[in-house]
Write a structure and sequence with these properties.
Layout (H helix, E strand, L loop, with lengths): L4 H4 L3 H4 L6 H11 L3 H21 L4 H27 L2 E8 L8 H5 L9 E5 L6 H17 L5 E6 L6 H16 L4 E6 L7 E4 L3 E5 L28 E7 L11 H11 L2 H30 L4
Parallel strand pairs: 2-3, 3-4
Antiparallel strand pairs: 1-7, 2-5, 5-6, 6-7
Helix pairs in contact: 3-4, 4-5
């Protein structure tokens, strides 16, 4: 899906009277490069800025309204596209994690679904206030970046820290800066009303975890197993549902041969979903068997 930049950006004489258009320029770039989920949020940020300006400066209300309609219409079209895909999603797997279980790291649970087809990842995690929360977040990002070679955007939504908001902002900005050194753009937003915990990948995989990222018991002793390798950590009881729908963006294209394969695959989404489900199911079965064997061997004395 593409759009003409000239139809969305105001002419130079009007641009001077509008707020900085960085978010709308980035939204257009994201949409044209296939990063649909990030484009939606950037359009929404532009809409919010224009609404603020129209309220604060009544003399610019008409000018803002002119572009508000354009951006609202485009954001709605993209949202409807995503919703259509989500409504047609299939349940790939349901996992029940028992209390004190081990061998359930992010890599083992989600690794089969993190691959080169993932260009964007959106994470809703309401609770990011304690040090252990940030350790979990960084570990998840490590797994995500290591597995997804063409990852370009990460969008994190969380609740604001009511006690030490400055500390939360400092840590998130630090993580964002670190990811930027690898050409991965992380944007985060704060939402007081956030409750749902989920991970949405541009490949069409949606992961819902009852406890969000924080299904591990806290590792207090820095010298204990599990401080670095989360497979050794004990878990809290929770459920995980993994869904699959059509991808929100096409897979990265590398060679002419792969271009032809991708074009054929665009017309074979149902077959691809079945093959994807079968492959993920096999990978997941092997990984769970390995995790169970590891846990039994390492902790048979418990």
């Amino acid at each position: 899906m593409s759009c003409k930049t000239t139809n969305f950006l105001p002419p130079d004489e009007e641009a001077e009277d509008l707020p900085k258009l960085e978010s709308i320029i980035n939204a257009l770039k994201c949409e044209q490069s296939g990063h649909i989920m990030e484009a939606i949020l950037l359009y929404e940020e532009s809409i919010h800025k224009l609404n603020q300006m129209a309220t604060a400066e009544p003399n610019k209300k008409q000018l803002c309204g002119k572009y508000l309609k354009t951006y609202e219409s485009r954001a709605k079209q993209l949202r409807d596209q995503v919703k259509t895909h989500l409504h047609a999603s299939k349940l790939l797997d349901h996992l029940s994690i028992e209390r004190d279980a081990r061998g359930r790291s992010y890599q083992r649970l989600f690794g089969p679904y993190l691959d080169d087809s993932v260009k964007e990842a959106h994470l809703n995690e309401p609770h990011l206030t304690e040090q252990q929360h940030y350790r979990n977040l960084v570990n998840f990002f490590e797994v995500l970046v290591k597995n997804c070679r063409y990852l370009k955007y990460i969008r994190l939504t969380t609740r604001p820290d009511p006690v030490v908001p400055k500390n939360q902002m400092h840590i998130l900005q630090q993580i964002r800066s670190d990811l930027a050194t690898g050409n991965i753009q992380m944007n985060f937003q704060l939402d007081d009303t956030l409750h749902d915990r989920k991970i949405v990948l541009s490949s069409g995989v949606v992961i819902k975890i009852g406890r969000g990222l924080h299904y591990f018991e806290n590792c207090e002793d820095i010298h204990s197993l599990g401080m670095c390798d989360f497979d050794f950590r004990k878990c809290l009881a929770t459920d995980v549902d993994i869904w699959k729908c059509r991808a929100f963006a096409k897979r990265p294209r590398i060679t002419d041969h792969e271009d032809q394969v991708d074009d054929r695959n665009d017309d074979e989404d149902n077959d691809d979903d079945d093959e994807y489900q079968e492959r993920c199911s096999k990978d997941d079965s092997r990984q769970r068997a390995t995790a169970a064997a590891m846990s039994h061997a390492a902790y048979s004395s418990e």
